[in-house]
Amino acid sequence: MDNIILFDGECNFCDKSVQFIIKRDKKAIYKFGSIQSDEGQEILKKYRVPQGIDSLILVEGNKCYLKSSAALRICKNLQGAWKLLYGILIIPKPIRDIVYSFVAKNRYKWFGKKESCMLPSPEIRKRFL
């Protein structure tokens, strides 16, 4: 299976995060899909992701990563100093996820919801499910 990033398709912060990743993923390692899409829902079922998870999800190989684990594993493959953030994985997951969950819980309040989807170029479009 490809490396797939599922994101909240209604979230401005999530959309900006996807654009950020695309810009720094020069090898096009990642494909993207909205959690709300049919493909996204199939992946959630396949990996038995708990109901109500609407944060960043990474499928890498045959494993599924959630929250801070997903975000930090993605950083490992980004161009530039961002890959150094991968080292934060040494911090225990419950502590990392407290910070992640705080941002996730407030993302609509701070960044708003999207009215419409971005229109990616044909080259970028093929990276979406």
Automatic annotation (TrEMBL):
Q: What is an example of a Pfam family matching this protein?
A: DCC1-like
| InterPro entries documented for this protein | DCC1-like, DCC_oxidoreductase
TM helices/strands, residue ranges:
none
* A GO molecular-function descriptor: protein-disulfide reductase activity
Q: What protein name is recorded for this chain? A: Thiol-disulfide oxidoreductase DCC family protein
Q: Read off the lineage from the record.
A: Bacteria, Bacillati, Bacillota, Bacilli, Bacillales
